[in-house]
From TrEMBL:
InterPro entries: APOBEC/CMP_deaminase_Zn-bd, CMP_dCMP_dom, Cytidine_deaminase-like, tRNA_aden_deaminase. Residues 1-41 are annotated as: Disordered. Keywords: Hydrolase, Metal-binding, tRNA processing, Zinc. The lineage of its organism: Bacteria, Pseudomonadati, Pseudomonadota, Gammaproteobacteria, Thiotrichales. It comes from Leucothrix pacifica. The active site is at E99 (proton donor). Zn(2+) binds at H97, C127, C130. This is tRNA-specific adenosine deaminase.
Amino acid sequence: MIGQKPALNATSDTSEHTEVSGEVSNDVSETVVDEAPEEVTDGSLDQDRLWMSHAMRLAERAEAQGEVPVGAVLIKDNTLIGEGWNQPISHHDPSAHAEIMALRAAGQALENYRLPDTTLYVTLEPCAMCAGAMLHARVTRVVFGAFDPKTGAAGSVYNTLQDDNNLHKLEVQGGVLAEQCSEQLRAFFRRRRKNK
Ligand SMILES: [Zn+2]
């Protein structure tokens, strides 16, 4: 997986969701919204969509493991250097969010705790913990899909990534494949309610 380039025909296959049963205790908001605050016209958008599609496929792995479906990838020079998906329940680890897992994988791959000149793609707006980890890692840019009005720390509730007190600030692009990312989460919560 490391060093992987994005497939040009990357699409999100959401047709094979595993039905989730059992107790899922995760504090990811159920009220994700998919409205981007402004029209996205950046030239890197196609690339952003490709990597976000990859993050959505990783989110499916989380769901297959009974976790809330969130996926993340870390990219450097348009090459994948780390990927992760949400797995706090199975790891008995409250910090095992998709972004943290991707940062850990990239740190191991590059043998460096600093990860400059990278872009992190994640299907849901990062929480304060993950935003803090991205600051420590010196990630350059974060691109997220669905907005999280309850716990989002990339502008929705907190603006951790761009706080004026920060020594380091990240570029932030929200709302890439927002509708698809939101629907992936909403479908998960719908199924979970049905299975209760
Ligand atoms: Zn998080």
